[in-house]
Design goal:
This protein folds into three domains: 73 residues, Beta-grasp domain (Ubiquitin-like (UB roll), Roll), CATH 3.10.20.30; 83 residues, Rossmann fold (3-Layer(aba) Sandwich); 51 residues, no CATH class. Helix content is 25%, strand content 19%. It is built from seven helices and twelve strands. The strands form three sheets. The protein has a five-stranded mixed sheet, with no helix packed on it. Strands 7-6-8-9 form a four-stranded parallel sheet, with helices on both faces.
C-alpha cells in the first residue's frame, strides 16, 4: 500500500497545544489508510472541543470526514466575534445556558464561578468518565487542565485552561465564553453550588456568631446545604477581587 501525504495547519490559540517547532506551520502528515480528520487533529495533541472550524481544500468539513492523499487541512479555534454557524458543520454548537463541570484540580476556580452565579459542578472525587458522562447528559462545559479528558469522543463542550493560577483561570473562562455580562454575584453557594435566597434573621439567629448577630440584620441562606451568608467585610473584599480580575 502506497504511503499518502496530507498537510495540516493550526491557527491562533490552537498552537498552544503544539511543540515549538510545529507552531504556525504547514505540518506534513503521512498515512496509509484513511483516518478521520478528528483522529488527525488529536494526533497532534489538539482536543476536538477546541476546534470550531475545519477546512479541507477550502471546504468546511466535519470531524468524521476521511482524509485523502494531498489534502490540505486548516483548523481554526473558537471565533470570538464572528458567527460562523452558516459554514461550520461541527457538532456541539454554543450552549444557550452556560453550565460547567470542573475536574478535580480546579476547586478554587469553582468557587470563583459560583460566586459570580454560574452553575458549576465540582467534586474532588470525580473520575474522568464521570465528568464526561455528566457533561454529556446535562450539557455542561468541561473545564480542565487535563487535555486527555477532552479527547473522549462523546465530549461536545470543553475547554483546556492555559493558566494554572485560579484567578487567571477565572479571567480566562470569562473571556473565552464572553460571560462578563452574565455575572450575577452572590446568587449561588460557593460551597455546594446551591441557590442562595434571603432568609429572615430570626430563622437563623441561633446559628450566627454573637458579633454577627449583633451587628448584621440582612442574611441569605443556601437552599441546598443551609450555609448562611451576610454582607460583612469579606463580601466587599470579594467584590473588589472580582473587579480586579475582570479589569
Amino acid at each position: 500500500m502506497a504511503e499518502k501525504l496530507a498537510h495540516i495547519r493550526f491557527y491562533e490559540e490552537l498552537n498552544d497545544f503544539l511543540a515549538p517547532e510545529q507552531v504556525k506551520k504547514d505540518l506534513p502528515y503521512h498515512f496509509y489508510n484513511s483516518p478521520s480528520v478528528k483522529d488527525l487533529i488529536e494526533s497532534f495533541g489538539v482536543p476536538h472541543t477546541e476546534v470550531d472550524l475545519i477546512l479541507i481544500n477550502g471546504q468546511p468539513a466535519g470531524f468524521a470526514k476521511r482524509i485523502n492523499d494531498q489534502d490540505r487541512i486548516s483548523v481554526f479555534p473558537k471565533f470570538e466575534s464572528l458567527d460562523i454557524s452558516s459554514v461550520s458543520v461541527l457538532q456541539g454548537r454554543p450552549l444557550r445556558d452556560i453550565r460547567f463541570i470542573l475536574d478535580v484540580h480546579l476547586g478554587k476556580l469553582a468557587r470563583y464561578l459560583r460566586l459570580c452565579g454560574f452553575d458549576t459542578l465540582y467534586d474532588n472525587a470525580y473520575e474522568d468518565h464521570e465528568i464526561v458522562s455528566v457533561s454529556a447528559s446535562e450539557n455542561r462545559i468541561i473545564l480542565t487542565r487535563d487535555i486527555g479528558i477532552l479527547k473522549y469522543s462523546n465530549v461536545q463542550h470543553g475547554y483546556w485552561l492555559r493558566s494554572d493560577q485560579p484567578g487567571q483561570q477565572f479571567s480566562e473562562v470569562i473571556r473565552r465564553f464572553d460571560l462578563k455580562g452574565q455575572i450575577d454575584l452572590f446568587t449561588r453557594c460557593m460551597e455546594c453550588n446551591g441557590i442562595i435566597q434571603p432568609v429572615e434573621k430570626r430563622k437563623v439567629a441561633d446559628e450566627l456568631p454573637e458579633g454577627t448577630r449583633r451587628y448584621y440584620h440582612e442574611f441569605y441562606q443556601c437552599r441546598q446545604c443551609g450555609k448562611i451568608y451576610w454582607k460583612g467585610s469579606h463580601y466587599y473584599d470579594m467584590i473588589k477581587r472580582i473587579e480586579r480580575l475582570l479589569a
